[in-house]
Amino acid sequence: MTHDEIIKALFDETLVGNAPAVLELTNRGIADGMTPGAILFDALIPALEEVGARFERGDFFVPEMLISGKAMSGALNVLRPLLAETGAETVGTFLMGTVKGDVHDIGKNLVNIMLEGAGFEVIDLGVQVPPEKFVAAIIEHKPDIVGMSAFLTTTMPMFKVNIHEITKAGLRDQVIIMVGGAPVTQEYADVVGADGFAADASTAVRIAKDLITKKRATVSA
Ligand code: B1M
């Protein structure tokens, strides 16, 4: 198979949620010298975008979204060690979670992988994280950054609730807060009082590094 054929097959098999084929094609592509980035950005992510578009049109239902998501997660497990460079110096601690009421985690996991690759220590609280769990984890781990993901317009308001609870616990000045997820915008991040927003995983890494550098410069000034 040529690389173009592998990309096309990966897209098609992710779309129909054929996890064994997606795994096999991912391994084959890597063994054949394809970059993890090409597999991710040219096949897997576009396939999930198409799944979302079909769901919106009523051509796909929740089970189809679920099996496509599982197929993508299997491939991400293969790509994880390749995307995360080893030996990078720790640049900071990043506490991450998908907000209460929301079970989407593929995008969050991808951000985690890229952060780890850039040298962050990532503490992942998982999905459906309630405000009190964010607060308890900040006290326990003392992270530099708290990251919150929301993938539904109905769960985005949890950012504000979480930030309110963090502020009420007297911890707001101690942490940088970043938000993200498919429906989130910079404007929304500003409205809820977050310090940073990113639309994708690589931008999230850049913004996280910038925010830490700025905070450390302010503290030492
Ligand atoms: Co759902 N879902 N889903 N879903 N799902 C979406 C999000 C949706 C857009 C589909 C659609 O209608 N087009 C839609 C939301 C509409 C809206 O609110 N505006 C939707 C819906 C409606 C639902 C349900 C309500 C369906 C139902 O039950 N009727 C339900 C909700 C369940 C719940 O959470 N309570 C539901 C369920 C599910 C599944 C469980 C079946 C499955 C999730 C599997 C899983 O995650 N383990 C699923 C899936 C797979 C999707 C789609 C198809 C794919 C999501 C994905 O993984 N994308 C999605 C459609 C779509 O997004 N086009 C959809 C790939 C991923 C790499 O991208 O998640 O955007 P993304 O992550 C990016 C950025 O957002 C950013 O970086 C990531 C990597 O580049 N980012 C950050 C993420 N977090 C960040 C944090 C940061 C910074 C950047 O800083 C902290």
Structure, described:
This protein is α/β, with parallel strands linked by helices and 221 residues long. The chain folds into 2 domains: 3-85, Methyltransferase, Methionine Synthase (B12-binding Domains), Chain A, domain 1; 93-220, Cobalamin-binding domain (Rossmann fold), CATH 3.40.50. It is 59% helix and 11% strand. The protein is built from 9 helices and 5 strands. The chain has helices at residues 3-15, 19-31, 36-57, 62-83, 106-117, 131-141, 158-168, 186-192, 201-220, and strands at residues 92-98, 120-124, 145-149, 176-180, 196-198. A 5-stranded parallel beta sheet has the order 2-1-3-4-5, sandwiched between helices. Helix 1 runs parallel beside helix 3, helix 5 packs across helix 9 and helix 6 (131-141) crosses helix 7. The radius of gyration is 18 Å and the shape is globular. The mean pLDDT is 93. The protein binds CO-5-methoxybenzimidazolylcobamide (B1M). The site of CO-5-methoxybenzimidazolylcobamide has 38 residues, from helix 3, helix 4, helix 5, strand 3 and strand 4.
